[in-house]
Amino acid sequence: MAKHLTYDDRLTIQELLKSGSSLSEISREVNRHKSTISREISLRSTIKKNGCYGRNYNACIYRFDCDMKDICKKGKCNKHVNYCRFCENCNNNCQYFKEDVCDKLTTSPYVCNGCNDRNKCTLTKKFYSAKIAQKDYEEILVDSRVGIESSPGEVKMIDDIITPLVNQGQSIHHIYANNKDVIMISEKTLYKYIDNGALSVNNIDLPRKVKYRARKRKQMGYKVDKSCLEGRRYDNYLEFLDDNKDISIVEMDTVEGRKGGKVLLTIHFIDTSFMLMLLRDSNNSRSVTGWFKWIYDAIGPQNFKMLFPVILTDNGNEFSDPCKIEKIQGNEKLTNIFYCYPYSAYQKPEVENNHQLIRRIIPKGSSMDHLTQADICVVMSHVNSYTRKKLNDQSPFDAFSSRYGFKLINALGIEKINPNDIILKPNLIK
């Protein structure tokens, strides 16, 4: 018997649930213990609050008799309905709301797949989808193999122990042998943390590691905190936008040069098409948070909060320390970070499209190791001075400066280039 459920197993579960089979019947068909099937359905089912054909979502026990009107105070009510019970926002705004939970969700198999009434039900529904369950399983499997188990606070505690002792000339083995009870991770894991930039100490600070050439191996990113996605997924992002409809959105990504070399952090302001390009020596989370700290120090908290109300990025390991960006100084949350679904670049199209202009100057696969931030500022100046049709033939430089001023522009040394002098070719920085 296989240790893990396969995609075919999950498809079988989905079909049997649709036909109304019991957990025992599914267990026999899939050849797994009943508890395994129950746990699979419980953990990987999807909750939906989408109402039914011709009727909005409403899970209130008073929904049939309620005659209340105009209870919404945030302007979100559907003004075309007479009673609040017909409004999709009623449940969120009514102080008398009490949820009515379908009995079928409290008894085996705890999902609506085989329910004949689901097409006329306005209550909260729960469905098992083999495709969604398999995707969730694969994401967890990857995270368990590549993620750093320690939280940001634990990583900082380890860093506070390791870095001063390394600076005194001590080896990692010596430090670990005498502090293992405090460090609470293995010596091998310590080296992995250093390799992936989780600690302040670098490989260059380890004499024996520098002396011997490193063995070639596939480099895998390590998340600073595997829980960074909680409350920050793309569906959370969409909910956030529903509550903040006029908010400015910033998209963030990475542009690579040669593998293992310098990379660019790209920050794209959608409303003005203005893009920041920030050179990093390595593609890790510390280099990303370091640049945001620099921006914060350069423009101040109020300007930072105005420029970065919400940031959308991908699941790259370099973006796995959102807390150090959201709360740069103190406990005040200055921005909100959200993540696209894996392999869903289409969810942040603006920054992806603007990369095409960068690639005209720095072709894919080209090394950026010889470049400095001053060179990248030249690239920024030319790209942001390039006229855009979507801005009514205005340049991002003009749009950004007129809306947000010149403080960030001046801090980075970005200049406006005469339209006829703009160069979008590799010879710009050679």
Number of H/I helices: 17
Structural class: alpha/beta
Considering the protein shown, what is the CATH homologous superfamily of the largest domain?
Answer: Ribonuclease H-like superfamily/Ribonuclease H
Strand content of the residues, in percent? Answer: 5-15%
Strand and helix map with partners:
Blueprint: H1 7-18, H2 23-30, H3 34-44, E1 45-48, H4 90-93, E2 125-128, H5 130-146, H6 152-167, H7 172-183, H8 187-195, H9 207-211, H10 234-243, E3 250-256, E4 263-269, E5 274-280, H11 285-299, H12 301-307, E6 310-313, H13 323-326, E7 336-339, H14 349-361, H15 373-384, H16 396-404, H17 407-412
Parallel strand pairs: 3-6, 6-7
Antiparallel strand pairs: 1-2, 3-4, 4-5
Helix pairs in contact: 1-2, 1-5, 2-3, 6-7, 11-12
What keyword list fits this structure?
alpha/beta, 3 domains, five-stranded mixed beta sheet, 430 residues, two-stranded antiparallel ribbon, globular
Quick overview:
The protein is α/β, with parallel strands linked by helices and 430 residues long.
Written account of the structure:
28% of the residues are buried. α1 runs antiparallel to α2 (23-30), α1 runs antiparallel to α5 and α11 packs across α12. The protein is of the alpha/beta class and 430 residues long. It is globular. It is built from 17 helices and seven strands. The strands form two sheets. The chain has a five-stranded mixed β-sheet with strand order 5-4-3-6-7, sandwiched between helices. It has a two-stranded antiparallel sheet with strand order 1-2. The protein has helices at 7-18, 23-30, 34-44, 90-93, 130-146, 152-167, 172-183, 187-195, 207-211, 234-243, 285-299, 301-307, 323-326, 349-361, 373-384, 396-404, 407-412; strands spanning 45-48, 125-128, 250-256, 263-269, 274-280, 310-313, 336-339. It starts with 6 loop residues before the first helix and ends in an 18-residue tail after the last helix.
